[in-house]
Write a structure and sequence with these properties.
The chain is an alpha+beta fold. The chain is built from 4 helices and 7 strands. It has one domain: 3-Layer(aba) Sandwich (Aminopeptidase), CATH 3.40.630. A hairpin with a 5-residue loop joins strand 2 and strand 3. GO terms for molecular function: acyltransferase activity, transferring groups other than amino-acyl groups.
Length: 162
């Protein structure tokens, strides 16, 4: 599947907020409280949220670049571009993940001029972890956040300490 990225729009956010994942991935369902605040945050250019569209301009997912991809408790001292991402629930588990993430990284290379990428993922999400390994990401850190969720930090590319 071919994907393209554009800065996120309010219409994209409204669609995303209706997405519902099946357990155990319901962990990623957007919270139903504070929707106004969430919409405002997703539209804030600081968080660099982008819509990921297919060739028909249908919303297939989203991504963010920078601090939004970080989780409290992780070690983010090594220089890399953090990527947060999500694929529309009905597209997960169908083999689109590689093309999805490859397009996101290509966009990041072009726009942000980064060659080193970092992903933070919940340990239970073995489907995503397998994808990240297939694309050359390596686990560099494991931690538990303040709400007792276990996470992995994976990186790909040249890392350097600040």
């Amino acid at each position: 599947m071919q994907f393209k990225l554009i800065p996120i729009r309010l219409a994209d956010i409204n669609l995303m907020l209706d997405w519902r994942y099946e357990p155990p991935f319901d962990f990623y369902n957007p919270p139903t409280e504070h929707l106004y605040h969430l919409r405002t945050q997703l539209l804030d250019p600081f968080w660099r949220f982008h819509a990921v569209l297919d060739k028909h301009d249908d919303l297939c997912g989203y991504c963010s670049f920078g601090e939004d991809g970080q989780v409290t408790g992780g070690d983010y001292t090594v220089s890399a571009l953090d990527i947060g991402l999500g694929l529309r629930p009905n597209l997960t588990g169908k083999g689109y993940g590689s093309d999805f993430l490859i397009e996101i990284m290509a966009y990041a290379r072009d726009i942000f001029e980064f060659e080193s990428f970092r992903l933070t993922v919940a340990v239970f999400n073995q489907r995503a972890i397998s994808l990240y390994h297939r694309l050359g990401f390596e686990i560099v850190f494991e931690f538990t956040d303040p709400s007792d969720v276990n996470y992995l930090i994976l990186t790909k590319g040249k890392q350097s300490t600040p």
